[in-house]
């Protein structure tokens, strides 16, 4: 450890710390996907967010946030404000330094990390934590023909990306998860009335929440499955028992999620890869549930025949001036040819391409400090969240936090798991800093 006093420096170009991509949105159609009572920055205080809402009157102007069952689904920016309110005092008292910049390069110099940023700054660090979360989606190769089209939206998460879509445009959404649902809700709010086609390979839609409160049901840790097939069989058997007890599948999936790390840790790499290839689409639509307000918008659009959901992939794409001709290769049916005015990609984060998503990550890979996890879910790391280099050895000064560590830890996409993992990484890092000081 150098003679410099310990400091925490966070690189974040946004005005406030804590909002990130998901909670920086100002679109009132975007809502948190789980009840506020289950959202908290602090794992040991699960009701903290709900208490903050009540204390600050954060949803006083949003009566639709309240559901008939008593649950609260605020707009996403409200959760961002909650996190920012917790971090702002740490910035003001100097415990955390907020650098409003994007990291452009990271290099190793002896035992230290040298970090360059978009504001021309140079920072030297003893430890580096990569917590960049989700990379942008990757558009299917056939859609490259639309590059430069005024209404081709390759990344709908960019602010104002949907502004190019006109009220009567015929729209194709490639991808059918939570992001696609947000797109439909956003366009409905601004008065879009054109027909919408939403496609995914299996035609699966994100499911809704349980019709009534249920505790997690089932046991998946005592005798953890050692194969993807065994895991699916156990889940199906457990759902059957839950149904017999008057419960729904929701409580079983909740238990699988809570036991996710143990389940994942006991699976061989080959079985983890099988899950990613074959089971993940089904897991995602049951695990990542849609906010009821957004679900209502989708259900209404489908009922009014303004939206259709197809099991299909993109085939040949042709552009005729601004008109887009798309061949849709349907699952178990002949292909069809459709005509659209706009196309939006919502295929989800391209975790397998994360090391190409930012130049400094690519540089760390090229210098053998990082490599992809074999499952394709992010960056390879140990059970201590230490990055594994090209030589297979972990680096105790380079840590991976959040969804990019999913390949090692399994279930690391929902807020409860992300915050628990952040506490774990912070605890590991604090121990490393103390050890460095003791030996420095």
UniProtKB/TrEMBL annotation:
Coiled-coil regions listed: none
Domain FAD-dependent urate hydroxylase HpyO/Asp monooxygenase CreE-like FAD/NAD(P)-binding: 4-134
Top-level taxon of the source organism: Bacteria
InterPro entries, A to Z: FAD/NAD-bd_sf, HpyO/CreE_NAD-binding, L-asp_N-monooxygenase_NS-form
A matching Pfam family: NAD_binding_9
Record PANTHER family: BLR0577 PROTEIN
Protein name: Putative FAD-dependent oxidoreductase protein
